[in-house]
Structure formats: C-alpha cells, structure tokens
Amino acid sequence: ELRHRASPWQRNLGYPLAMLGLLALTGISVLIVCFHVLELLLDDAAMPRGMQDASLGQVSFSIFGSFGAALQVVLIFYLMVSSVVGFYSSPLFTRLLPERQDTPLTKIIGNCVSLLVLSSALPVFSRTLGITRFDLLGDFGRYNWLGNFYIVFLYNMGFAGLTTLCLVKKVSWAVQAELIRAFGEDR
C-alpha cells in the first residue's frame, strides 16, 4: 500500500537508487572481506590482534587515506543496520518487534538487551572481518580466539560465502520474477 501511494519520483528514482546503494555496499563489504582472506593467507600480520603502539592521528587506518576511512565508517554503519534488520527478520525474534502504543515492558527490556548485545559485538565483528583495523581504543584484539587463524579464516569465509549466496539469491529471484511477469508466464 505504501508503494502504491509513493510518488512517481520515489518509485522510479528513489527505490532503484536505494537498491543500487545497498547492492554496492554489500558488494564492497564482500570484496573487502575477500581481500582480507587473501591477506590472512599471505601475511600473519593481518590477524585481528590489538594495536601495538599506534598513536591516534599518527597512523592511517586505511590504505586509501581519508576516503578509505570514510568508507570504513559507512560500511560499519551499514553492517550495524543490516545486522539489526537481519536480527528482527529472523523467525525466532519476529515476536520481539515492538508494537506502536502496545509494547509490554518485558518486550522493551528484551529489545534493549538485544540491541546492547548487537552493538557490543559490532567492533569485534568489523575487526574480525578486516573492515577496519581501528580498535575504538577498547583493545578488542586481546581476545584469545582472535589469534586463532582457523576461526578467523572460517568466520571470514562464512561471511563472504553466505553474503554472496544471499545477494545472488535475492537479485536472481527478483530478476527471474520480473522476467516471468514481463513475458506473461505468470498467468
């Protein structure tokens, strides 16, 4: 119903641009993770350990300078939003979604706990995937499992594989449905 009430500009320009932006951010994050996997295979320094004497402002955290740092920030926000959307889209947690003017206190507490856990895991998540090397000065790299090559490697491969599979599935099914509809095979 909201799509039908949207203006032609929004339907013909806004939605496609938003979709292209989401596809671009997903593709960039998968490319960065794939590059990080290659880095893991070739160099032990790519492991997500803590920062050793890197003074803030003296060391660039991106090889692309300011543009790379801005891209890292955008990707971290994208991962944050996509993890929240994915969390609330999973069948186990759809009942946790708040309802307008009718949310019990236990649901509010459950939402607060869930968002706290997701936001606390985000720095370790982005660091393990190789999206950023910045520690947020919390020294998240001192966790013992972050030094285990196999865990970090499988985590990166799982993210890249599952994200690519999801992306291909969504895009190919949408294209396939549009082609079927365009050729009139849906009748």
From TrEMBL:
<dbReference type="GO" id="GO:0016055">
    <property type="term" value="P:Wnt signaling pathway"/>
</dbReference>
<dbReference type="GO" id="GO:0005886">
    <property type="term" value="C:plasma membrane"/>
</dbReference>
<keyword id="KW-0254">Endocytosis</keyword>
<keyword id="KW-0675">Receptor</keyword>
<keyword id="KW-0472">Membrane</keyword>
<feature type="transmembrane region" description="Helical">
    <location>
        <begin position="145"/>
        <end position="168"/>
    </location>
</feature>
<keyword id="KW-0812">Transmembrane</keyword>
<dbReference type="GO" id="GO:0006898">
    <property type="term" value="P:receptor-mediated endocytosis"/>
</dbReference>
<feature type="transmembrane region" description="Helical">
    <location>
        <begin position="108"/>
        <end position="125"/>
    </location>
</feature>
<dbReference type="InterPro" id="IPR006876">
    <property type="entry name" value="LMBR1-like_membr_prot"/>
</dbReference>
<feature type="transmembrane region" description="Helical">
    <location>
        <begin position="58"/>
        <end position="88"/>
    </location>
</feature>
<protein>
    <submittedName>
        <fullName>LMBRL protein</fullName>
    </submittedName>
</protein>
<dbReference type="InterPro" id="IPR008075">
    <property type="entry name" value="LIMR"/>
</dbReference>
<comment type="similarity">
    <text>Belongs to the LIMR family.</text>
</comment>
<keyword id="KW-0879">Wnt signaling pathway</keyword>
<feature type="transmembrane region" description="Helical">
    <location>
        <begin position="12"/>
        <end position="38"/>
    </location>
</feature>
<dbReference type="Pfam" id="PF04791">
    <property type="entry name" value="LMBR1"/>
</dbReference>
<keyword id="KW-1133">Transmembrane helix</keyword>
<keyword id="KW-0256">Endoplasmic reticulum</keyword>
<dbReference type="GO" id="GO:0004888">
    <property type="term" value="F:transmembrane signaling receptor activity"/>
</dbReference>
<dbReference type="GO" id="GO:0005789">
    <property type="term" value="C:endoplasmic reticulum membrane"/>
</dbReference>
<keyword id="KW-1003">Cell membrane</keyword>
